[in-house]
């Protein structure tokens, strides 16, 4: 009698983003992305001022060097293989392939780099799970076109995805079109390359940009399936369940309105059309989405699976000003008094992950994939019996509790393809641009001031996750 409900072919692994760990921002013909010119590489959180975007990289942007995966990929992939990874989620840097975004021809050196990555993964039997656009819109597309606010980006994105789908059609099976596509509502520059000041960006223009991304995503799904019918193409959303602060029906309505903002994206990806609730929202806010003649038909190209990130839940109320707002949360929300928080104010809610899994599966009856989950913490390197390490029992506790809830969701009947923990190796935080906010099983010797040797060291959680994978989840229940 086993306690683990994880299927035999479950895809265990880890997830990264090119802009947060590759480095080599200007090597081998790569163009600049929006990440390269954001001071310190961070993004403004709700309630804070927007970062001043520059035209050239600034020396304090840790993402320019990242953790130098570009030159150390063999070492890092070998460590992932040692943990037993079945899958590795990564992104292709769009501006490595098309340096300006609107180039006629791709950059061969960029394509060749990812060939090497996929070949190295294949050597260890690790499936790549590739995000086509992960917060790294080419800077030229932001500056010259205002990013996804301009419909022209659909054509540039189409050229890019045709290029990489064709090039890697025999090396990659699993694809994601956009990372956390719903985050464009809250971080339009980072997520959508939109340079309009967020305070001046109208709802009309913002939701028109959303439409362009959704059409581009559906077009990519159509193209991918035509190039290789065996491709499995998914959407990727930032999942954040919401609880009502009270039993007041108005608070319940506030939850529904908040969650509909996020469901909008997965509803269209899974069902191929705009839901009725958003039509009411558009009408009440004087928003008219401009459809090209082909858009309605294109949106019918629905995804093969739903993938999502999960870090926290939030609370909602009809009168949110009566409560304290959660700190460090890109999507806003109210602090939940029943939950503990991480060092960065992200509330820790393992049961929320089970709720998300059941909600998505009940809603869509499509396979799911957890492609981000993890704990950012300030790790301290200490001397261990086998050399430097980190005694990160807090990370083990966080992941163990979340994975037990994943197991419960599997027992509930949810169909789940895999689980990739965020940042299996330390990388630069997307939201705060710190390296001290560490997620990995592997410690990287680099500091927030840019110093450090970039040496890699296994944390205590490295061997723990290795046992979880080897036992297909049984080790989660060891005393």
From TrEMBL:
EC main class here is hydrolase
> Active-site positions, per UniProt?
372
Q: Which UniProt keywords apply?
A: Glycosidase, Hydrolase
Hydrolase as UniProt keyword: yes
**Taxonomically, which superkingdom?**
Bacteria
Signal sequence interval, chain numbering: none
Q: Which InterPro entries match?
A: GH, GH_1_N_CS, Glyco_hydro_1, Glyco_hydro_1_AS
Question: Which terms under GO biological process does the entry name?
Answer: carbohydrate catabolic process
Spell out the molecular function terms from Gene Ontology.
6-phospho-beta-glucosidase activity
Q: Which family does it belong to?
A: Belongs to the glycosyl hydrolase 1 family.
**What is this protein's record name?**
Beta-glucosidase
> What species is given as this protein's source?
Streptococcus hyointestinalis
Instruction: Identify the gene encoding this protein.
Output: bglA
């Amino acid at each position: 009698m086993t306690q683990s409900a994880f299927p035999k072919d479950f895809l265990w692994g880890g997830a990264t983003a090119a802009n947060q760990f590759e480095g080599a921002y200007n090597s081998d013909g790569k163009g600049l992305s929006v990440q390269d010119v954001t001071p310190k590489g961070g993004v403004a959180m709700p309630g804070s001022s927007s970062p001043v975007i520059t035209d050239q990289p600034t020396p304090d942007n840790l993402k320019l060097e990242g953790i130098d995966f570009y030159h150390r990929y063999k070492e890092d992939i070998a460590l992932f293989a040692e943990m037993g990874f079945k899958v590795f989620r990564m992104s292709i840097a769009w501006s490595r392939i098309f340096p300006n975004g609107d180039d006629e021809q791709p950059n061969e050196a960029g394509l060749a780099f990812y060939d090497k990555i996929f070949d190295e993964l294949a050597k260890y039997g690790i499936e790549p799970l590739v995000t086509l656009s992960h917060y790294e819109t080419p800077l030229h597309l932001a500056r010259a076109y205002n990013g996804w606010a301009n419909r022209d980006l659909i054509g540039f994105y189409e050229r890019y995805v045709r290029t990489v789908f064709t090039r890697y059609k025999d090396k990659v099976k699993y694809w994601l079109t956009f990372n956390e596509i719903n985050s464009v509502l809250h971080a339009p520059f980072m997520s959508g390359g939109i340079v309009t000041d967020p305070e001046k960006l109208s709802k009309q223009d913002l939701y028109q940009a959303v439409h362009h991304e959704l059409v581009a995503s559906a077009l990519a799904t159509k193209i991918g399936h035509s190039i290789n019918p065996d491709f499995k193409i998914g959407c990727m959303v930032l999942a954040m369940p919401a609880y009502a602060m009270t039993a007041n029906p108005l608070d319940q309505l506030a939850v529904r309105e908040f969650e509909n903002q996020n469901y909008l994206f997965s509803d269209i990806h899974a069902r191929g059309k705009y839901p009725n609730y958003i039509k009411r929202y558009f009408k009440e806010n004087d928003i008219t989405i401009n459809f090209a003649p082909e858009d309605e038909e294109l949106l019918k190209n629905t995804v093969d699976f739903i993938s999502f990130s999960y870090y926290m839940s939030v609370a909602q109320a009809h009168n949110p000003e009566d409560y304290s707002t959660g700190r460090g949360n890109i999507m806003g929300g109210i602090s939940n008094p029943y939950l503990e928080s991480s060092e960065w104010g992200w509330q820790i809610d393992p049961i929320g992950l089970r709720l998300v899994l059941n909600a998505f599966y009940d809603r869509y009856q499509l396979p799911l994939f957890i492609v981000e989950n993890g704990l950012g913490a300030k790790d301290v390197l200490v001397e261990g019996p086998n050399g430097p390490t980190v005694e990160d029992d807090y990370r083990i506790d966080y992941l163990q509790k979340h994975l037990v809830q994943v197991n419960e969701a599997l027992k509930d009947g949810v169909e789940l393809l895999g689980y990739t923990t965020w940042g299996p190796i330390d990388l630069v935080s997307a939201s705060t641009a710190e390296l001290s906010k560490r997620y990995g099983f592997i410690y990287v010797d680099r500091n927030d001031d840019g110093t450090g040797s970039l040496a890699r060291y296994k944390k205590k959680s490295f061997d723990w996750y290795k046992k979880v994978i080897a036992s297909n989840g049984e080790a989660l229940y060891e005393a």
